[in-house]
Amino acid sequence: MSRWPDLSRRKFLTVAAALMGAGGLARSAEEKPARRRVLRLAHLTDVHLQPEKQAAEGFAKCLAHVQSQPDKPDLILFGGDNIMDSFDQTKDRTRIQWELWHRVLKSDCSLPYLSCIGNHDVWGWGKKSGASPEEPGYGKAWAVEELRLPKRYFAVEKAGWKFIILDSTHVGDSRHGYLGKLDDEQFDWLAAELKATPKDKPILILSHIPILAACVFLDGNNEKTGDWVVPGSWMHIDTRKLTALFHQSGNVKVCLSGHTHMVDEVNYLGTTYYCDGAVSGAWWGGKYHQFGEGYALIDLYDDGTTSREFVTYGWEAKKS
Question: pTM of the prediction?
Fold first, then answer.
C-alpha cells in the first residue's frame, strides 16, 4: 500500500512547485554572503605609564604582543589614562610621564593609533598639582597636545565606519573631583554628528569613562551600605540621555570604554557596550579584582556587527 496520498495531477504540480520554491528559499539563505570584516582594532586602555614599577617595560611588552598577533590589528585605540596621573601632579612630574609615553611609542609602536582623554590625563585639577587655570596646558590642553588630537572630541571615518571620540571627564561637585558626562557643547555636537551620519553607516564611540557598564556595580562597598552605589565618577551620569540619543539614531553599534580596569559587555537598545580592562591591571600591581593586565581585540564588520576578545599578554607585576 502506498504511503503517499492520492494526488491529482494539478495538486501534484502545486505541491511540487511549493517544494521547489522552499528549496529555492533555502538555497538563497545558504548563498547569502557572510559578513566581511573591514577592520581589526586593538583597544589599549588605562596604561597608567610611569617611571616606577617597570611600567614602561610592561607597556612595551603589551605593544609587542599586539603587533605579534598572527592576525595583526590595523589600528590601536588608546582609551585614556595613558599616563599614571597628571590630575594631582606638578608640571615637572607630568612632563616626565608624557616624555616616557613618547619614548615607548617611538621605540615600540609601529601601528597607527587614536586616543581619547582619561581623567588622569587632565593636568592641574587636583589641589596637589599647584597649577592655576592661567597656566599653559592647564586642564585638557596638555593632553590634547601630547596625544596629537585635533581637539578634545572629534570624529573620523575608517573602513566604512564612523569613529566618534568623546571627552567624558568634567569638573565635579563637592563630592567628586570629576564626573563622567558630556558638557552641553559636546552633547549638541554629538547629536548633530549622529543626525548627519547616513543611517547605513555604523558608528563606534570611544570614551574613557563607561557610558553604560555592569562591572561598576561590583567595584564598591555595596554589602556595607546595603545599596548598589555607583558614583558619578565611575560611569556617565548622563547615561539615560545618551542611550536615548543612540536609540533614536539607530546606527550607534558599539561603545568602547576603560576606566574601571574590569571587563564586561552590555547590550542595550541595539548598542553593545564593551568595557575593556586595563593594560596596567591594578596600576601595575597585579590583577584588579579578577582581571589581569590585558587589552581587547575588536573586529568590525561591514554589516555593523562586532566581536571582542580580551587578551592578557603575560605580564607579571613587579614588587618595586
Answer: 0.89
| Bigger pLDDT: 88 vs 132 | 88
Report pLDDT digits (tens) over 92-132: 999 999 999 999 999 999 999 999 999 999 999 988 888 88
- Quick check: is 288 in a domain? yes
- Residue 170 pairs in a beta bridge with 179
Domain range enclosing 158: 35-312
The mean pLDDT value for 166-186 works out to 91
Q: What is the enclosing helix (H) or strand (E) of 254?
A: strand 252-257
Residue 2 predicted with pLDDT over 80: no
Rounded to an integer, what distance in angstroms lies between the CA atom of residue 64 and that of residue 62? 5
CB 125 within 8 A of CB 86: no
User: Residue 93 has which C-alpha cell?
Assistant: 612630574
The runs of H, that is alpha helices, within the chain are 9-31, 55-67, 91-108, 141-146, 184-196, 222-225, 239-249
Domain CATH for 123: 3.60.21.10
Report if residue 15 sits inside a domain: no
Kindly tell me the number of DSSP H helices and DSSP E strands found in the chain: 7, 13
Strand partners of residue 147:
none
Which class for 65: exposed (0-12), middle (13-18), buried (19 or more C-beta within 10 A)? middle
258 occurs within a structural domain: yes
Q: Of 65, 117, 131, 255, which is closest to residue 57 (Cα–Cα)?
A: 65
Q: What is the CA radius of gyration of the chain?
A: 24
- CA torsion sign for 126, 131, 132, 138 is negative
Any domain includes 6: no
Closest CA to 292 of 258, 257, 261: 261
Asked if residues 148 and 165 have their Cβ atoms less than 8 Å apart, the reply is no
Distance CA 35, CA 131 (A): 51
Question: Structural domain tally of the chain?
Answer: 1
Burial readout 6-43 (b: 16 or more C-beta within 10 A, e: otherwise) = eeeeeeeeeeeeeeeeeeeeeeeeeeeeeeebbbbbbb
